[in-house]
Input
Amino acid sequence: MDGAANYRGRRVLITGADGFIGSHLAEALASAGADVTALALYDAFDRTGWLDDIAVETRQAIHIERGDVRDPAFMMRLCEGQDIVFHLAALIAIPHSYRAAQSYVDVNVTGAVNVLEAARTHRPARVVMTSTSEVYGTARVSPITEAHPLHGQSPYAASKIASDMMAEAYARSFDIPAVVLRPFNTYGPRQSERAVISSTIRQALDPNCDAIRVGDLTTSRDFMFVGDTVSAFAQAGSHDAVTPGTPYNAGTGHAVTIGDMVDEVRRQIGSNKPVVQDAQRLRPEASEVRALLADPQRLADATGWQASMALADGLATTIDWWRGRIADEKVRTSADYVT
Output
């Protein structure tokens, strides 16, 4: 992982470490010798999300805390003594944000403020706040630079715009060393099967599915493998040249349509299942983001970071992971997940 040497012996807090990207970041930084505290949402069944899938020897090196970013007192205690804070905890499912917008404000906005307030007290050397390419909405120009206007085309996107502005405000008002990282569409092992690449792969492999059901095949996305996303976080968290209060895109600089991605998955798997457009997977027309293509030059100029995994190679790795999950029967036993 690029920048890993910068983390040996550093005390690092990762919120949302039980999630897709967070678990990969916790795993990578612990393997690099960081003293990692991983925040997982409290679960009465004693599960810690994808942290449970990390190799035992690495997981044992991670200090796992259970709690909730919506609790300000808890976050104040958790941030004490940390050198670097990565804030990844968020509600991210766009379709659910149409149904439960307030919960996205509670987690994504209030949770971000709680982290920033804790940083205001304990003064870590760096806070990396996780944003999303969804804040740009449908691109007015392409590729998208950080100067692109922000558009809240879904309640989720609006909540992340608010979080970004809070990070800028705390950097400007209270000299908090907070930077905003905007990963474009990350994919890879451990991603929810409701995400478009994971869903496509699962359906293509699953004998319970007679077709591959997707939403709009004509939209395009800048898909980035999770290992490259983790590397971007590592650079944003440690490099001296990043500027507090500033957003940084992380993407490949290449985009493909959903239809082309589906075709590549089917080619690699050898699937001849039909592809069906599912009305339940379509966003409201005015809310659909038609195209997302990153211009990652600002992050490259500051840190030297660049994505390195080609889409075909990343899909192959992700397909292998899904084959293992299905073979080990670590997936749902019905195809109802596609609805």
